[in-house]
Amino acid sequence: MTDQQHTYQGYDQNQEPYPQQYRPRDPWQYQEEHQLYADEAQQGQAVRREVTESGSWTFDGQISAYTDQQTYETYAPYDPYATYTAPAPAPQPAPAPVAPEPVPQTPGYVLPPVPESAWEMDTKRSRLLGRLALLCILLIQAGLSLRLRGTAFQDEALYIASGHYELANLLHGDKLPVDFAAYFSGHPKLYPVVAAVVDSQFGLTGVRLLSLLFMLGATGLLYSLTRRLFNPRAGLGAAALFSVLQSTIVLGNFATYDAAAIFLLALAAWAVVRTDRMNDLAVLLAAPPAALAFGVKYASGMYLPTLVVLAVITAHRHRGLRALVRGVALGAGIVALLGVGYVLSGPLGGISSTTTDRAKGTDTAATMLSHSAEWGGLVFLAALGGSIAYALRARMGEMPWLGAETSGRWRRVALGLVLTGTALLAPAYQIHLHTEISLYKHVGFGLLFAAPMAGLGMARLVGPHFRHPQLGILLYVLTLVFGMVQAQRAYSFPDSTQMTAYLRTVVDKKGTYLAEEQEVPAYYLRDKTDWTQWQNSYFMDYRGKDGKQYTGPDAFRQAVRDGKFDAIVMHGDVSPVTYAAVKEGLKNNSHYRLAAVFPYTTSSGEHAYRIWVKR
Questions:
Q1: Which of 212, 334, 439, 576 is most buried as measured by Cβ atoms within 10 A of its Cβ?
Q2: Judging by beta carbons within 10 Å of its beta carbon (0-12, 13-18, 19+), is residue 448 exposed, middle or buried?
Q3: Model pLDDT for residues 8-64, shown as the tens digit of each residue
Q4: CA distances from 152 to 117, 180, 490, 517 (A)
């Protein structure tokens, strides 16, 4: 091996591990010198070497120290005095200052975990918020009803006065002045008796407050059943829209059995929905209020099939075809209770005369459709929109993972058809009869069932996460404004205060009196007169002093000419034909004198009570 074949393994020429004089020499030459140094050291000779204070050897004034690890490992076997000193690291630039990580601070208030959409799921929080909002809705409803003022309307006076006679018959066996069951549109021993009891203690105001409680209860039940069907947001929408309808506002301060019937129907519907997951026979809890609603007002019978079908639809999701058992059980329960009630009550001619075989009128279908749309069109459209939206999509997508838990499309379609379609029953039936009498009240019965779908439609209009609240507010405000205006117009009837005050000075237990809307003075003056002393202005048979038999307007004309009545009270708004016949009978009639005229104002204009007294 030649010198050229030797390499400086691990030797770094930029450092000086060996004396300067050795640098140009071949590294193998160091081996010989190291051996020489080792021999000298063994012989105790101290030639060209000495120990430094650090303990390393010096050769010819140079320190045998290595600063390169690889070089040290290469030559250490030949240099017994070799040491390794690691080179000092080159100074590094100071690192740039790093901002300290912020110390997490504990927040002063931690929001509790809530569902992603509190209104989409019926949770404790949503129920609390819903009840607070419902309280506000009920307060508004009460205020709208209580703002209506007026003396007793004809129907109010009729039912309360008849209740007093029916109550006396029940308690003391007194003979009824007339067979009220023959022409009442509800059983006379149900609501009229309750109204008479309240009237005895609190007067007409107390009976009207009872109606308000019935309507507020119906709104509360509507919210509860809609929340059960859908969610609290739809329940609030249903309650809000129903609470400001014309029929709801009017019936909330109207002493008739309509409010009681609506409450009972709402209670029956709530029981049907609430028992959807219970035992099949639990649905029978809805049978008593449903049957009682029919007894209170016979027109409620139109809505009993809706309850039966609703019992099937609400349970189909959980039971499948077994849900038919619920419908059969409810239908049978209602029929059984009605049968028992009919047996106990005896003949009820009012069912046919006021409901099933009511006399046909002359009102056109176009007029009734127009008025029905005016009184409930907005809510019906909202229900229709809600039904379509519900059929297309069970939820709004606020919580998409719940999609699999919703009911099937056919069930959703059926629910929308049944509830929304029920709103058309009353208008359709009265169009069939060509009469608009009481239609403004009956519209509210159907809208009670359509309201859940209207509430859902309002929720869909607002959108997920309350995206468009202004649309829901607009729908509510429009319904509110229309309801207020229409209610004020419907609640406009004659103020009978002055008329009854004057009649109190001229009537007694012996006279016979003709009065348009005779129920009003008969109610207010029942302490001074009996029911049979008052003749109404609708129909009359009369045998004149000339021996002839008269009927209709001719009977009134001839009776006035003969001086049959001790006092006559007419204003012409209710029975214009009779009023014209009476005025003909009064011409050149020496039996009567015009004793008083009391003007009043209604939504139809200026009118006046005219009272003629027998000389």
A1: 334
A2: buried
A3: 344 444 444 444 444 444 444 545 555 565 566 555 554 445 544 444 555 555 556
A4: 49, 19, 14, 11
- How many CB atoms within 10 Å of residue 366? 9
Residue 350: strand, helix, or coil: helix
- Give dist(CA 299, CA 427) in Å, integer: 12
Q: CB neighbours (10 Å) of residue 156? A: 24
Q: Give the CA radius of gyration of the chain.
A: 49
| Separation of alpha carbons 32 and 378, rounded Å | 116
Q: Which string of DSSP letters, residue by residue, matches 546-613? A: TS-EEETHHHHHHHHHTT--SEEEE-SSS-HHHHHHHHHHHTT-TTEEEEEEEEEEETTEEEEEEEEE
Determine whether 193 is exposed, middle or buried from the number of CB atoms within 10 Å of its CB (0-12, 13-18, 19+): buried
Q: How far is CA 255 from each of CA 144, 243, 248, 515, rounded to the nearest angstrom?
A: 16, 18, 13, 21
CB contact at 8 A, 186 and 293: no
Structure tokens at 4: 């050229």
The two structure tokens encoding residue 386 = 């809600």
Q: How far apart are the first and last CA of the chain?
A: 167
Tens of pLDDT, residues 172-231? 999 999 999 888 989 999 999 999 999 999 999 999 999 999 999 999 999 999 999 998
Secondary-structure percent of the chain, ordered helix, strand, coil, rounded to 5 = 60, 10, 35
Rounded to two decimals, the pTM is 0.78
CB-side neighbour CA atoms (13 Å) of 463: 6
Sheet holding 513-515, edge to edge: 534-535, 513-515, 567-570, 605-614, 592-602
CA 95 to chain centre: 67
> What digits encode the pLDDT tens for the residues 63-77?
566 556 666 666 566
- As a residue count, the chain comes to 615
CB 246 within 8 Å of CB 490 = yes
- By the 8 A CB rule, do 457 and 487 touch? no
Q: Which residue has the tokens 């056109």?
A: 364
Structure-token pair, residue 545 = 């002093």
Tokens standing for residue 453: 């779908």
Helix (H, G, I), strand (E, B) or coil at 614: strand
Single-letter amino acid code for the residue at 216? L
Q: What sign results for the dihedral spanned by CA atoms 496, 497, 498, 501?
A: positive
Q: What is the pLDDT of residue 438?
A: 84
